[in-house]
Amino acid sequence: MVATETTTDVLLAAFENSKASAGPTWLHVLRAQALDAYREAGLPNIRQEEWRYTPLTSITRQTWRVAPPDAGATLRLIDIARLLPVGMEAPRLVFVNGRFSTRLSTQGRLAAGLHYLSLRDALESKGPSAKVVQAHLARHAEIESEAFTALNTAFFEDGAFIHLERGHDLSQPIQVLHLNVASEAALSQPRSLVLLDEGSRAKLIEIHAGIGNAPRLQNSVCEIVVGERANLSHLLLQHEDDAAVQINMHRARVDKGGAYASRVFSLGAALTRNNAHCVLNGEGAEATLGGLFLGRGTQHLDNHVYLEHAKPLGTSRQLYRGVLDEKSRGVFSGKVVVRPGAQKTDAQQQNNNLLLSDDAQIDTKPQLEIYADDVKCSHGATSGKLNEEALFFLRSRGLAEREARSLLTYAFCAELIEAVKPETLRDALAKLVQARFE
Length: 438
Hints:
438 residues; alpha/beta; 11-stranded mixed sheet; 10 helices; 38% strand
């Protein structure tokens, strides 16, 4: 990693004693460029439009340290089993505080055409994987306009590298577990690169979870390329608590005839900020983006989506739903941009929110920006409370008020959950969500 001079920036300060990491010359150049970009931009603040609803005081008021290498050294397979929604049998890469754990992972080329290893190992392989990483790392996620992406690029230690070669179809989902373990305020920055070549198909399950009562900050970046006629189903599950702060950036490029489906399930953290930027970069490309965010206490959950139709005949669907209780706050900011020449675009965006408390808040901002004239685009947002008539009906059938409210709240979430495959993952998600309303 790149060493820095003493600074009052709480995130740069965490890396003051970092030593330069091994790696090719091009990576050192990239890290230096990213560090310069971060210093130029600095941390975002509420005076910036894209961050006006996202207070970063839970970050700036804390003294952060990079977790020591031995953090989580005593973890056993039994400790992570409950965090893997499709079980221990599926292939998995496990990262503890942003560092690859060989003993908790199943690694290697597990199926024909699949390259599945840590990003550090891919870089050090000096083979085809290293060349693929060089061709794509930081080519999709921008360091100039995204301060947290720049910080991650400058200081990431490791992450997942998944590359599926042309024409291959994986029958099993791949699991990537990012586990944050802390006995004191700890910062981790995992980086992932996911590439599907032409005509390939895969399912990716990404899990972010934490262990310990100390403050934990994770700033993660994932770059995704879905090749021509390739198909990627990507599920992100955030299963954290009030000791955690999650900042996540997902940048996806979908080429001609490709399809990308993303579902984000945010089950709480003190602060969650999910940034999704998807570009439909080829004719006939498709994207289905959705998310469910559940807040309670004083939790703050943000979803910021930028979906760009760059070529003709693209199709996109967005459905995000939030359930906010007590004094929690949710944010949805979604923009669909249709570029000149992207004719025959078909784009729909919807955000629905359920407020279970008078003190819960939601800020929603669906947007369309259209520079083509032959398109079909729509957007909308709703916010409200539980339907009193439906609640009365259920109570008249003998259900207690708490049971009736729980049933109606889960029904509000069900459309997103029921769309999840495989069945084992869907069932696991259903149980997690139902447990929040009991």
